[in-house]
Amino acid sequence: MAVQLNEVDKVVITTLEDNFVDLLSMDNSEVVTRAMPIKGMVFSNSVLAEHGFASVVNTFRGEEKSSVLFDFGLSEDVAARNAQAVNCDLSDIQVACLSHGHMDHFGGMKAMAGLIGDKGLDLVLHPEAFQTSRFVMPMPELKITLPVLTRDYVKDSGFNAVESAGPMSLVSGDVLFLGQVPRVTDFEKGSPMYYEKNGEDLLDPIEDDTALVMNLKGKGLVVLTGCAHSGVINTVKHAIDVTGVSKVHCVMGGFHLSGPAGAPLIDPTVQAMKEFSPDYVIPTHCTGRNAAMAFEKEMPQAYITNMAGTVLTFSA
User: Fold this and answer.
1) InterPro entries recorded for this chain (predicted)?
2) Shortest CA distance to 286 belongs to which of 124, 133, 104, 128?
3) Which of 256, 293, 233, 288 is nearest to 100 (CA)?
């Protein structure tokens, strides 16, 4: 049974942290608004880029406005610093969501909570975001451990952890936390990352990987991923299945196609994305330069380069 997702009149996504920034791009449009390097008519305002992602999603439905925080970035202070640089007021955030329990998405949690204020807001996340023994293994016998997200850390940051493995309606049904994404394509096999269980090293399915979904009136779904470890095509397919909305307006987020492991997945992912025929495709964060260029080449009318500090406005 489909989860009811309200049609909204506008979706505004403000990227507070991403891997890329160019303050001289000068490519503003009715959809894209770039961060300005000017403060007090002096070229002195900086926005930082790093390997991480953080964003604010605002939806507008009639007189109703919602505000959702999606991810917190990597370093303790970068996303919060950028929020102040682009004058993004976090005091009206109603709920926070975490795409998955990797450091480049939760590292700035405490600083972001400080900008929100002491509200005890809910942080919606998959239970497996608290997996305790994750690591990467770039070569045999070389284990690089990943920082662990704990329930105490969430609580100490000022959030109330709300754990959900399935889809969850947020802000009166204007935004959907997608929950765990089924792996149904034959080419999206998951990321080469690991965890330890009972002394054994196992491939990490990263079951906590998820996305946010909005439904723009008359135009279709806006799907925002964090890293799409489940596969961005699997993620969009699941969003369609859960909402019952077949039209896709925008797919944005990290698609995790960078590096040697992602290279073989670029072409089948691009071709499958073209079948959805989204009006916009906006690779971010971990998508990788080669994959981003492939999307730009194959879907030039839909492609948008994202940057830290960019505001994207999608209107019905």
Assistant:
1) DHPS-like_MBL-fold, Metallo-B-lactamas, Metallo-beta-lactamase_dom, RibonucZ/Hydroxyglut_hydro
2) 104
3) 256
Half-sphere exposure of 204 (CA within 13 A, CB side): 25
Whether 1 has a pLDDT exceeding 70, the answer reads: no
Q: Quick one: 192 exposed, middle or buried, by C-beta within 10 A (0-12, 13-18, 19+)?
A: middle
- E strand intervals along 62-198: 64-72, 95-97, 122-125, 134-139, 142-145, 160-163, 168-170, 175-177, 194-197
Rg (CA), the chain: 18
- DSSP, residue by residue, 201-256: EEE---TT--EEEEEETTTEEEEEESS-TT-HHHHHHHHHHHH----EEEEEEE--
The DSSP code for 272 is H
Residue pLDDT, tens place only, 133-177: 999 988 887 889 999 999 999 999 999 999 999 999 999 999 999
Residue 2 has pLDDT above 80, yes or no: no
Domains of the chain: 7-310 (3.60.15.10)
Chain-centre distance for alpha carbon 268: 21
Secondary structure letter of residue 270 according to DSSP: H
Cα–Cα distance list, 119 to 8, 66, 301 (Å): 26, 16, 42
And the tokens for 110? 């405490």
Summarised one tens digit per residue, pLDDT across range 237-292 is: 999 999 999 999 999 999 999 999 999 999 999 999 999 999 999 999 999 999 99
Query: Which tokens belong to 152?
Result: 């105490």
Query: For residues 152 and 265, what is the distance between their CA atoms, to the nearest angstrom?
Result: 37
